[in-house]
Amino acid sequence: MLQIRNFRKAYGRFTVLSIDELAIKPGVFWVRGANGTGKSTLLKAAAGILDFDGEISLGGKISLKKDPVEYRRRVNFAEAEPVFPDFLTGKEMLHLFASAKRAPARQQDYLVDSMHMNAYVNEPLSTYSSGMLKKLSLALAFLGKPDVILLDEPLITMDTVSLQVLYRWIEEKHRDESVSFFLSSHQPLETQVTDTLTVENQTVTANA
Ligand SMILES: Nc1ncnc2c1ncn2[C@@H]1O[C@H](COP(=O)(O)OP(=O)(O)OP(=O)(O)O)[C@@H](O)[C@H]1O
After folding, report:
1. Quick one: CATH architecture of 2-206?
2. Is 151 within 8 Å of 111 (Cβ atoms)?
3. Ligand 1 pocket: which of 37, 150, 153, 199 to mutate (most atoms <8 Å of CB)?
4. Burial of 55 (0-12, 13-18, 19+ CB in 10 A)
5. What residue ranges are annotated as transmembrane (predicted)?
6. Distance (Å, rounded) from C-alpha 182 to C-alpha 166?
7. Which atom of ligand 1 sits closest to the CA of residue 38?
8. How far is the C-alpha of 181 from the C-alpha of 159, rounded, in Å?
C-alpha cells in the first residue's frame, strides 16, 4: 500500500530519517519511537506537507511527487497540534476540506454529530480549546474517501468519551472501507493493530 524508497530527510546537515526500502501492506499501524526520533517527520513527509529526498507512493502506482493532487486526495493527515486560521469557523473548515477531498454528502454531519461537536461547530476557531481543535482536526482527516489516514498523536488532549468515538471511527473506516491507518502515539492504542512501526536509529522498521 504505502511504498517508501531511497527516502532521506535532513534538517540542515542533520539527517533525521533514512529509509532505503519499506513496503507497508494495508492495515492499522502503531508508529512508535522515543521523543525526537522522527515520527512526525515521517508522517508529515508521507502526507506531502514536508519536502524530502526519495520516493513515496501508494502501491508503487500513485506517486506523491509525480501525482501530487491524486495522492493527496487519497492520503489524509491530522497534525499532533493543529493550527488553523482563527477567524474561520469549524463548519467553514469542514466545508473547505469536504470540497477538496470530494467528500460524500452528509459525511461531515455524521462526524460532527458522533464527535459531539454541534454546540460549537459554528463558532470561530479562536474560541476553541485545544481538545475542541483536536476533534475538528481529526474530523477533517476522516473526510472524503482516502486509502490512508495518518494521525500524529491522535490521543493527546482528547477526553475519554471522544477517544472512544475516535476508536469507533478508525474501526469503521478500516472494516467498511479498507482504509489503512498510521497512528503515532506514546501511549498504547486501544484498537487492534496490524503491526508496529518503530522509528529509531534514524530509520523505520516493521516489527512483525
Ligand atoms: N523544522 C525543524 N528544523 C530543525 N530540526 C527539526 C525540525 N523539525 C524537527 N526537527 C528535528 O528532527 C528530529 C525529529 O523530530 P520529530 O518531530 O519528527 O520527532 P518525533 O519522533 O515526532 O518526536 P516527539 O515524540 O517528541 O513528538 C528532532 O531531533 C527534531 O529536533
Report:
1. 3-Layer(aba) Sandwich (3.40)
2. no
3. 37
4. middle
5. none
6. 14
7. 18
8. 21
pLDDT tens, position by position, 174-201: 999 999 999 999 999 999 999 999 999 9
What is the DSSP annotation of 73-124? HHEEEE-SS----TTSBHHHHHHHHHHHTTPPTTHHHHHHHHTT-TTTTTSB
**Average pLDDT value for residue range 7-22:** 95
Q: What is the mean pLDDT of the chain?
A: 96
CB neighbour burial string for 79-115, b if at least 16 within 10 angstroms, e if fewer: bbebebeeeebbbbbbeebbeebebeeebbeebbeeb
Say how many Å lie between the CA of residue 39 and the centre of ligand 1.
Answer: 8
**Lookup: cell for 21:** 526500502
* Max Cα–Cα distance, the chain, nearest Å: 48
**73 DSSP β-pair partners:** none
What predicted TM-score, i.e. pTM, was given to this entire model?
0.97
Q: Does the predicted interface ipTM exceed a cut of 0.90?
A: yes
CA distance 174 to 179: 5
Ranges of each domain in the chain: 2-206
Q: Is 36 in the pocket of ligand 1 (CB under 6 A)?
A: yes
- The number of beta carbons lying within 10 Å of the beta carbon of residue 172 is 14
